[in-house]
Design a protein that fits this description.
Lipocalin; 2 domains; 1 helix; 11 strands; 161 residues; mainly beta
Length: 161
């Protein structure tokens, strides 16, 4: 039977002598490969890699994705393609907002927004019907999803300052 990878054959042992140097020992039942390393450089490289992961992780968690105005096109409805604007804001940690028509006039208040890890479900009432728009991020400024079974695509509106 052939081994699948090196870890099926070898055991890896890292030994630090407490000084500036240490050993990496790779062993199997018959041979031992011993590599002498500079522990100061090893610790420095490990610290740099760990710090990079921490910074990237922290940046990813600080961005609040959904607040802003989203121009959403819903395709193939009985009324044709429908363009809606969802104006979302975060107040006291909770996402809320309104639905607007193409002129910016409020057409409905959003009754509930359920944020999950990779999607948001936006509920509101229109023409006497309770509907939900489910959106998933595509990139920083685009979403995709569906409204009542119809395909929807949205773009974050860039506000002039």
């Amino acid at each position: 039977m052939q081994p699948k990878n090196a870890s099926d054959i070898y055991d890896l042992v890292i030994i630090s002598s407490g000084g500036d140097s240490g050993n990496i020992i790779l062993t199997d039942k018959r041979t031992t490969l011993k590599i002498k390393i500079n522990m100061k450089k090893f610790k420095t490289m490990f610290l740099i890699v760990f710090s990079l992961f921490a910074v990237v992780s922290a940046r990813a968690q600080t961005k609040d994705y959904y607040p802003g105005k989203w121009d959403v096109m819903v395709y193939g409805t009985p009324y044709g393609d429908v363009k809606l604007t969802f104006a979302l804001e975060r107040k006291d940690g909770k996402l809320s907002g309104v639905v607007q028509d193409s002129t910016g006039k409020e057409t409905a208040k959003i009754t509930k927004i359920d944020e999950k890890e990779k999607e948001a479900i936006i509920a509101y009432t229109t023409q006497g019907y309770d509907v939900e728009l489910t959106i998933d991020p595509v990139d920083d400024d685009n979403v995709k999803g569906n409204l009542a079974g119809f395909t929807a695509k949205g773009v974050r509106r860039k506000e002039n300052k």
